[in-house]
Amino acid sequence: MITDPPRVDGFELRALSEADAAGLRDLFSDPEVCAFMDIEPLQTEFEALDIIDWAEAQAAQGLGVRWGIRRPGDPRLIGTVGFNRIERSRGRWGEIAYDLARDQWGRGVMSTILPAVTARGFTDFGLLRLEAMVTVGNARSCALLERMGFHLEGVLARRGWWKDRAWDQMVFARLAD
């Protein structure tokens, strides 16, 4: 099971649990937060629980992990970060993923957190490669990944189908030093 989050000054990270259902619903009810994601904005805590159940199952099987992000002393969930997938049987790579409440955009939250998360992937998880899938049009995410040392490897045309349309996705990657 993968649950222990990295330590990051100024933030508290912990594995998502049922106690996060209301906070996750609030985070993912914002259409702008979900604009480039493969989900519709959430309406209910039950929808949030489905996401939490998925994250808990991934962690229990050692296939991934998703940590909730909070500021110390503030119970509000302001985002999530982690690995949607960790592959160890046919390679040593992981897919990093993150999201953040709109009022936290541009405040350096992910620039502070992602170095610790990528380090966890390379050192503690023993991964040789990290990938991030970014929906075309998500310029903020592209800029963040480039600042974190990720490089655009290519575009996968029509890789996803959600919100009644096909979506192209960009593959960003970073290799272990």
TrEMBL record:
Give the UniProt keywords, A-Z.
Transferase
User: Which molecular function terms from Gene Ontology are attached?
Assistant: protein-N-terminal-alanine acetyltransferase activity
Q: Does the keyword Transferase apply?
A: yes
Which InterPro entries does the entry mention? Acyl_CoA_acyltransferase, GNAT_dom, N-acetyltransferase
* A UniProt-annotated Pfam family: Acetyltransf_3
An example Gene Ontology CC term for this record: cytoplasm
Q: Which PROSITE patterns match?
A: GNAT (PS51186)
Please state every residue range assigned to the domain named N-acetyltransferase: 11-177
Q: What is this protein called?
A: N-acetyltransferase
